Amino acid sequence: MFGLSLPHRQLALGSQRCSDMGSVPHRERSRDRHKSHSKDGSRSEKSVTINAPPAEPLLGDAAARGEEVQDDNWGETTTAVTGTSEHSLSQEDIVRITKDLEDSVGLDCRRYFTLTLSVVLGLLVFLTPLAFLALPHLLWPEKLQACGTACEGLFISVAFKLLILLFAVWALFFRAPRAGLPRVFVFRALLAVLVLLFVISYWLFYGVRILDSQDENYQGIVQYAVSLVDALLFIHYLAIVLLELRQLQPAFSVCVTRATDGETRHYNLGQLSIQRAALAIIENYYRDFPVHNPALLTASKSRAAKHLAGLKVYNVDGEFPMTPSTGPGNNAATGLAQSQSRAMIAAAARRRDTSHNELYYEEAEHERRVRKRKARLVVAVEEAFTHIKRTQEEELKKAPGDVMDPREAAQAIFPSMARALQKYLRTTRQQHCHSMESIQQHLAFCITNNMTPKAFLESYLNPGPTLQYGRERWLGRQWTLISEASVTSGLKEGALFLLKCIDFSLVVTAKRIPYIQLSEEFIDPKSHKFVLRLQSETSV
Amino acid sequence: MSFIPGQPVTAVVQRIEIRKLRQGEHLILGFSIGGGIDQDPGQNPFSEDKSDKGIYVTRVTPGGPAEVAGLMMGDKVMQVNGWDMTMVTHDQARKRLTKKNEDVVRLLVTRKSLEQAVRHSMM
Questions:
Q1: Structure confidence at residue A478 (pLDDT)
Q2: Quick one: which of A102, A211, A238, A493 is 20 to 30 A from A60 by CA?
Q3: Would you say A254 and A269 are in contact if contact means Cβ atoms under 8 Å apart?
Q4: How distant is the Cα of B8 from the closest Cα of chain A, in angstroms?
Q5: Which of 24-83 (B) contact A at CB < 8 A?
Q6: Where are the membrane-spanning stretches (chain B) (predicted)?
């Protein structure tokens, strides 16, 4: 609630004053003079928001909130805080900073921890067969049987299998991590535990049966080492199947809706845990969803504010409960608040509302304006592009003067279309998405690659996916997964979770793809036969 | 005018007797027929039930023998000289109507207005 009130601070006191019942007019005027706080600009009845003067960040927060005085002068006596005042820190900023701190420290710690663990495990796994082979030679070389040809053949096999295992592990595990997930990756943890147990059990066996008894049969020992490497390759196969192959087959259809403007997309995912599904969805979000534009949402908010405005509830019985309505045991006050809100809803419903009319005409007008600006823009850009011509090598030698590289060419033709483009972006409220620098860069890019004016304009006429815009809009580190089920549990039918970003959230629901029963029907090619439809008329 | 298979067809019919007119070497009756069990019943504009494959009068030449005898466009021909016309092919119907050795054809035709007239007179 705190960050959402409007930044301008002057209240139109006229509406409150003229609806005032005139209970204590003198008191309110003297209070006005003493109070240095400014008033809330929003005209909604419900917002009890608190204003901190610039020097005092959040101290006024909890204290002033309790003063919900149920009298006619509440409009002049409450104070409001805006989340966007210049000097104070809003609550959101503080939350954001602490979260960043703990994120950066926490994630790095965990990442290095897992990295060291995996490196240790890898070294253990690779050095074990070599140790098995080398230790007999070191510890009891005299007793050892000579290694025949079969035995030496096994050496080659061990060497190549270890090489293959090395490449396979590098391919599967040594990739740059593309995300940090909130909980541990269950399958990887299980596999690591499995490998560890496996290697430990082999070492135990080796230690008891071979080292203690100092076995002389070297070929047996070599075969033992080969069996270890084989089993490791099979564990790697298991890793591929569990980590990569299992979720390739689509099993769930998830519906992703952006909460602010209702953009919806559907994706097919395999059997994933909720956190991995969230990761897949976020990656698809950056590609598929048009960029989030908060400027387009203000219209509905202002309409919503106007719906309840102008209605004020008067308590004719003259009760003034001084305690906050949320105090314990204060049922009378809550009942009062509920009946007041119901009365307001009923009055708002009965009132003859012409806002639908305004919306209709406003939208038609906006549409017309956008189309006019678009026409001007297209013409301006086409004309600008005709001033530039790509020169060939021979022409370069002939007319060496005034040759430009793409950047300069872009800068040369930019001014002729800048005004039209700026006006169009303003009308469609995209002007904050594109800086002049980025527009010129894009223009140079289009000129270099022989693109037509239409291709140049495409990225401005339609809002593209988030990846198209500058990196600062990507907000990569700021996603939060909100889920009632544990995030390492798998997706189920009807699973619901939220992916929250700072400005908006994505609501994700999952449905199982139905079992498809496909049956066949054979059509004999000779069975395609036709007759004419007759309708003749004969005169007799 | 629809029929239930296996049940006798009941209809109010009008007896029309047409004298054939000699035109050159042909004997003409002065109307055109459409329909038949080998034809497409859905295209018949005169039938009530679009699965009726009976023979219908599609055109009556003005001033011809058929018009003089009182045949009207849209009539369904039920019998010709005693031969049934409700379950014949188009060609069979034509043959029955254009027998060279007959001068007169006696048709039994039915139309919707006949049934209505009977109903009104009964009420």
A1: 80
A2: A102
A3: yes
A4: 26
A5: 28-29, 31-34, 38-40, 43-44, 58-59, 61
A6: none
Could A535 and B94 be called an inter-chain contact, meaning their C-beta atoms sit closer than 8 Å?
Answer: no
Q: Which residue has the higher pLDDT, A469 or A505?
A: A505
**Nearest partner of A413 among A395, A396, A388, judged by Cα:** A388
Q: Give Dmax over CA atoms of chain A in angstroms.
A: 124
Q: Please say whether the dihedral angle defined by the alpha carbons of residues A130, A132, A136 and A139, taken in this order, is positive or negative.
A: positive
Residue A344 contacts residue A359 (beta carbons within 8 Å)? no
Residue carrying structure tokens 């230690």: A207
Tell me the pLDDT tens digit for each residue of B1-27: 556 778 888 888 999 999 999 888 888
| DSSP state for residue B78 in the 8-state scheme | E
Which candidate from A533, A534, A537 shows the least CB-CB separation from B58? Answer: A537
- Considering only A431-435, A458-462, B78-82, which range has the smallest mean pLDDT? A431-435
pLDDT tens across A403-417, in order? Answer: 788 899 899 899 999
Q: What is the dihedral of CA A459, A461, A465, A469, to 10 degrees?
A: 50
Q: What pLDDT was estimated at residue A454?
A: 92
Q: What are phi and psi of B21, to 5 degrees?
A: -105, 140
pLDDT value at residue A69: 43
Nearest to A509 by CA among A488, A487, A499, A494: A494
Q: Flag whether pLDDT at A317 surpasses 90.
A: no
Candidates B44, B53, B90: best to mutate against A (most CBs of A within 10 A) is B90
| A521 vs B: CB within 8 A | no
Whether residues A538 and B38 touch (CB distance < 8 A) is answered with no
Mutate to test the interface with A, among B26, B27, B44, B58 (most CBs of A within 10 A): B58
What is the Cα–Cα distance from A497 to A482, expressed in whole angstroms? Answer: 6
Chain B residue with the nearest C-alpha to that of A536: B34
Confidence of residue A91 (pLDDT cuts 50, 70, 90): low
Contact residues on chain A for B40, CB-CB shorter than 8 A: 533-535
Among candidate residues A105, A245, A275, the one with its CA nearest the CA of residue A184: A275
Q: What is the 3-state secondary structure (H, E, C) of B2-71?
A: CCCCCCCCCCCCEEEEEECEEECCEEECCEEEEECCCCCHHHCCCCCCCCCCCEEEEEECCCCHHHHHCC
Quick one: tokens of A66?
Answer: 């309790």
Assess A531–B contact: CB distance below 8 Å, yes or no: no
Q: Which residues of A touch B28 (CB under 8 A)?
A: 539-540
ipTM over 0.90: no
> How far is the first Cα of chain B from the last one, in angstroms, to the nearest whole number?
21
Each residue's pLDDT tens digit, A211-253: 888 888 888 889 999 999 999 999 999 999 998 898 899 999 9
Supply the pTM of this predicted model. Answer: 0.63
